[in-house]
Design a protein that fits this description.
With 140 residues, the protein is of the alpha/beta class. The protein has helices at 37-43, 51-64, 70-76, 91-99, 115-138; strands spanning 24-28, 44-50, 81-84, 103-106. One of its GO terms (biological process) is thiamine diphosphate biosynthetic process.
């Protein structure tokens, strides 16, 4: 069986000159998770869920690991932030992630953009902060 591969320059962070592999942001929307979602997850430096995407990971990621307790899988695959207009996230999913310390950012005041746009804006705003933390961790 051949390994599945995925390549995309979309949402790739610029790699600092002294690092050979680039960093990626993973944005999860309200779409079915691909079978290779864990691979994308493992290579992502930043993981952002749109509100409906939180439901998809909560429900779908345990299905990719049927031999592991679903709660353990959900703890392993938690986002850095959930962002959107909060019209799609189920109450129990939101409570689960909030109890894990995940930041939930309600930007429902901005109805001129989609949840994808809201998430991409977060990623773009985070690039400088991530670059600073990469530099400081390399010198530690």
């Amino acid at each position: 069986m051949e390994a599945m591969r995925h390549a995309s320059t979309f949402l790739r962070f610029p790699a600092p000159p002294d690092i050979s592999s680039p960093s990626y942001a993973l944005v999860v929307l309200n779409q079915r998770l691909p079978r290779f979602a864990p691979v994308l997850w493992s290579h992502a430096k930043l993981r952002v869920f749109a509100d409906g995407g939180a439901n998809r990971v909560y429900d779908g990621m345990p299905n990719l690991f049927p031999e592991i307790d679903p709660t353990e899988v959900r703890h392993r695959y938690k986002p850095d932030i959930i962002r959107g207009d909060m019209d799609s996230i189920r109450k129990e999913v939101k409570e689960f992630y909030v109890n894990l310390g995940v930041k939930v950012e309600d930007v429902s005041h901005d109805q001129a953009t989609t949840d994808l746009h809201k998430c991409v804006n977060y990623v773009c705003d985070s690039v400088d902060e991530l670059d600073k933390s990469n530099v400081s961790s390399q010198h530690a």
